[in-house]
Design brief:
single chain, alpha+beta, Helix Hairpins, Heat Shock Protein 90, five-stranded mixed sheet, 8 helices, 7 strands, elongated
């Protein structure tokens, strides 16, 4: 029974390698040698029928050897190259489970196969890591946006009754005698109300979305980045996202981060509206003064009674939705002096249209 040390030595011992050049040259050398022999035989006797038959048989053998050469070349080079090309096409289509079978060969072709399989494995691991980081960032961004909108709404709901309480306290303090012990309590209540107002102000400053930082830049690049992130979300789904840029569109004054957020939200809504295979199409077009971005899908659509409410905060038709994404998108677009509209047909799909002015009336940030 072999020991562990023997097994390790057997595994680490290099196998005999035969270069592919030798594998392909030897049949050619044999054919040349046979041809030389046939030539010598033909020079010895050209009139002997028996020898002519021998020469014919030898010629047929030479042809057979040429056939062997073709088979050897096909098995050595052509078949692996065809397989490699097919697997490269699979990788190009996004399938990172591709691999080649000739990686088991112990020659340069095998080295090529092993390197290809290793490259695909590294790409697959990198994509998995990127997907994990992307999901984490998307979840965090959605969480922060939700907290911001909730904080804004909560501050508004607290301040209204708090103002009423402050008014009542003022009225009560005027009716109290100057020597009443309740005067000290009223003073403490005023201080607590002021403290609550300060906390709400700080909360709003933290949660309220910042004003857009308008700069003149390529709107195609901004939208394309959002499309790339959305494609990561559907990489394991039968959903295709097409993007048609507008190469003739001039630079547009916009906050690229905020418009990117708007388009990504619209794209994810479109993806979530599709059950099974489907298509999301993003198109950019423009005129001299405006740029139009449309996001259309082949999803289940929106019911007519819901269309007037979809941009309202906290309105959602999704079981796990917050109802804040579209309201935030409309706010951002309106702060860019643009418009956002929606058309939908139940069972056929939905189209969002975002219109942005090419030039803003406000001063462009440097």
């Amino acid at each position: 029974m072999p020991t562990h040390e023997t097994e390790v030595h057997a595994k680490s011992a290099p196998r005999l390698r035969v270069n592919w050049q030798l594998k392909t040259i030897w049949p050619v050398a044999v054919v040349l040698l046979v041809g030389m022999l046939l030539f010598l035989l033909s020079t010895l006797s050209l009139r002997d029928p028996d020898r002519h038959r021998v020469l014919a048989i030898a010629g047929a053998g030479a042809v057979a050897i040429c056939g062997v050469i073709i088979v050897v070349l096909a098995s050595t080079f052509q078949n692996p190259m065809i397989e490699l090309q097919e697997q490269i096409e699979r990788v190009g289509e996004g399938d990172l489970n591709a691999s080649v079978s000739f990686a088991r060969r112990n020659d340069e072709i095998g080295d090529l196969g092993r390197n290809f399989n290793r490259m695909v494995r590294l790409l697959r691991e990198s994509r998995e890591e990127i997907d994990h980081l992307h999901r984490t960032q998307m979840s965090r961004a959605e969480h922060l946006a939700t907290l911001g909108e909730l904080a804004t709404g909560l501050a508004h709901e607290i301040r209204n009754p708090l103002a009423g309480i402050a008014g009542v306290i003022e009225i009560l303090s005027r009716d109290l005698p100057s020597t009443s012990p309740a005067k000290a309590v009223v003073k403490d209540v005023r201080l607590e109300i002021a403290q609550i107002n300060r906390i709400l102000t700080d909360l709003l400053e933290t949660a309220r979305p910042r004003a857009p930082e308008i700069r003149s830049s390529d709107l195609n690049t901004t939208i394309e980045h959002a499309v790339m992130l959305a494609r990561q979300q559907v990489i394991s789904k039968p959903i295709r996202i097409d993007f048609s840029a507008s190469p003739d569109l001039p630079e547009v004054d916009h906050d690229s981060d905020q418009i990117h957020q708007v388009l990504l939200n619209l794209l994810l809504n479109s993806v979530q509206a599709i059950d099974g295979p489907g298509l999301v199409r993003v198109e950019i077009s423009g005129q001299e003064e405006t740029a139009l971005v449309t996001v259309s899908d082949t999803g289940r659509g929106i019911a007519p009674e819901h269309l007037p409410n979809i941009f309202r905060p906290f309105f959602t038709t999704k079981g796990n939705g917050t109802g804040l994404g579209l309201s935030l998108a409309r706010r951002i677009v309106e702060e860019h002096h643009g418009t956002i509209e929606v058309t939908s047909s139940p069972g056929k799909g939905t189209t969002f249209s975002v219109v942005l002015p090419v030039r803003q009336s406000v001063a462009v940030a440097s």
